[in-house]
Amino acid sequence: MTIIITGTSSGIGFALAEYFGKKGHKVYGLSRKHTESQYFKSIPTDVTDNTAVQNAVAEVLKTEPKIDVLINNAGMGMVGAVEDSTKEDIVKLFSLNLAGPVQMMSAVLPNMRNHQFGKIINISSIGSEMGLPFRGFYSASKSALDKVTEAMRYEVYPWNIDVCSLHLGDIKTNIADNRVIAQVSQPYKNVFDKVYALMNSHVNDGTEPLEVAEYIEKLLAKNKWKAHYYFGKFGQRIGVPLKWILPQGTYENLMKKYNKLDKN
Questions:
Q1: Where in the sequence numbering do the catalytic residues fall?
Q2: Residues with Cβ within 8 Å of residue 100, at least 6 apart in sequence
């Protein structure tokens, strides 16, 4: 297959690109900086720049007759209290986490439609299913992408194009190095510091990126997709069905305990 993956300079994206390249697929990795690898071709691309996105896809189509798979992996985290977040940081986050994937999908869809086939995976987060403390805008950006994914499933299914959200738990990557961090004001500082330390420890103890690649390989082998898939440690995945079935107050108390917000 011909596979385009965004955000391949490091972390999950790099692991995915190398994994599928080693399997013999033709992989094109799009990220802001060029990445050296013998297993995939790197095309420097800022996915928030629509002209750059269109040029990158056109470059792929110079040598490939069709695009089979798009994995929208490029994204960033954002932490801080809602009150402290600036418009500039919010726009930056949504530009990459929402507008970027939409521009990528819009660029590959004409080719997929012409060939009556295509698969698109939008990398989301288990955190998109709930408002996480001090990660409200990150949750919101991924939740927005989820809803776009659901809408697109109706719109593109006549052409045998399938789209899904893959909600990941904490994966062991360097995501902490690339987060937008809001200036934390004094009323929130003590509790934020505790939550932020816990957040980073969860990432350090997270699932290996290779396991994500293996899961996606199994996903690509399926004939039909559900709208949502969840991958990560059980303690994080269980938060989704609990959100659906528990009273809001009970769920919030569990989240406070999980995030150590119930302790002074």
A1: 9, 124, 138, 142
A2: 6, 47, 48, 53, 72, 74, 75
